[in-house]
Amino acid sequence: MTFLEDNKLIFERPVKVQLDITNKCNLNCLYCYNKSNYFSSKDDLADKDLFLIAKKIIKELKPIVLSLSGGEPLLKKELTYKILTYASKKNTEIWLTSNLLLLDKNTAKKLKKLGLKKIFTNIDNVNPKIHDRLRGKKGAFNTAIKNLKQAKKIFDHDNITITSVITKHNYKDIDLTIDFLHKHGLSKLKLLDMIPINNQSMKDVLNQKQWQEFYKIYKKSNIKAKTSGITITPCHALLFMGQKYLKMKLPFCMAGRLNLVILATGEILPCNHLKFKEFGCGNALNDSLLEVWQQSPILNRFRYDLDSYHACTNCPRYTKCAGGCKAMSYAFFQNAFQKDPYCSTYKLNQHKYE
């Protein structure tokens, strides 16, 4: 038995299900993992079918959270409103991941009225020119900030999370991001790892020396953030450094363990960064979601298969890492079940940190 098998009960149902209600987007981000995956060329299901899937998720899987994403979900406002209305009646918490370009004042008010609980939006750099370049659209930063200010007036600050993908373009600027949050009365920052989708985006991933430099920057910035009432959720790489992992109750990666992803095409996947045919677990429109969740060989391998990681058993992070990020391993090695590159290649876990 592994420590994951010992906790098999927690995998009976997912805690969070992400439903992409469209693959379309009004931005053109440099590192978007929706661009070049196996499913990206397929058309979205009809809205009536996506609504049926949302109802199936709530009825069969009974997750605590249904997270609407994309693409840009607000390109389908009416479907978003319809799902929110249904979910609120069933006491399912709804989260929304949006670039905010379409979140005007009236939309924010309606979402709040219909029961939307949390909003996640990405600000990769507080320099408008850099942000717009990364997002592939001039003026994206200013529009997002204008709508963010409106959202802040309608939603409590604790229910808005700013996410930031750490790359070579911004890893030295976390202090500026904290200042930005403090200025706008926001309290949550979630750092995300850059999951490269091609050779070009691989160049934007921090190298070993830069990650070690970022760790020092993060430690100082985290102290500053706490004094400003801001909570920072560390990215995956930071969990291999220092002692943060000791406070974790569950493994680093929740893909297929507590989280499930359903695409706008109906495909079921363990992770939103693994949109490839080999990770398809079924079709949400045609299959029993509970049977897929409990019986899928792919999902069960994500949960329990640690055969590839025997060399890790003496590592103190082993029971929290459980092989690490499968999407990162796939990006680096084209094999989701190799040791996490932050450990095997970068050896971030072997450096001494104060």
Spatial ordering of strands, largest sheet: 7-6-5-4-3-2-1-8-9-10
Helix percentage range: 25-40%
Percentage of β-strand residues: 5-15%
Instruction: Write down the Rg.
Output: 20 Å
Indicate the mean pLDDT: 90
* Subunit arrangement of the protein: single chain
Q: Count of DSSP E strands?
A: 10
Helix/sheet category: alpha/beta
Estimate the global geometry from the Cα principal axes: globular
Number of helices: 14
How would you characterize the largest beta sheet? 10 strands, mixed
What distance separates the N and C termini?
A: 35 Å
Q: pLDDT below 50 for ≥5 consecutive residues: which ranges?
A: none
Order of SSEs: HEHEHEHEHHEHEHHEEEEHHHHH
Notes on the protein architecture:
By secondary structure, the chain is α/β, with parallel strands linked by helices. The protein has 14 helices and ten strands. The protein has a ten-stranded mixed sheet with strand order 7-6-5-4-3-2-1-8-9-10, covered by helices on one side. It starts with a helix and ends in a 10-residue tail after the last helix. The model has no long low-confidence stretch (mean pLDDT 90).
Q: How is this fold's topology laid out?
A:
Elements: H1 3-6, E1 16-20, H2 47-61, E2 65-69, H3 77-89, E3 93-97, H4 105-114, E4 118-122, H5 128-135, H6 140-154, E5 160-166, H7 174-183, E6 188-193, H8 199-202, H9 208-227, E7 231-233, E8 259-262, E9 267-269, E10 282-283, H10 289-295, H11 297-304, H12 318-321, H13 326-333, H14 341-344
Parallel strand pairs: 1-2, 1-8, 2-3, 3-4, 4-5, 5-6, 6-7
Antiparallel strand pairs: 8-9, 9-10
